[in-house]
Amino acid sequence: xxxxxxxxxxxxxxxxxxxxxxxxxxxxxxxxxxxxxxxxxxxxxxxxxxxxxxxxxxxxxxxxxxxxxxxxxxxxxxxxx
Length: 81
Fold this sequence. Notes:
Elements: E1 2-4, E2 9-10, H1 11-19, H2 25-32, H3 42-49, E3 60-61, E4 64-65, H4 76-80
Antiparallel strand pairs: 1-2, 3-4
């Protein structure tokens, strides 16, 4: 599965980096370039480093991820009505 679209890095390559000792997203990035551009794949890389499945509850939205989006603020006057 292609994880880092910017640098065309697959989950297999990332797992190989982890097998060789990478223990963080930054270390994976230094080893193979994954996560070093837009950052949209960093949650998936983080899951792979932790030994979780690459799709561990993460829905890809390109550069943003569903579980990482900030909540939409509600105007205070909308709460009063």
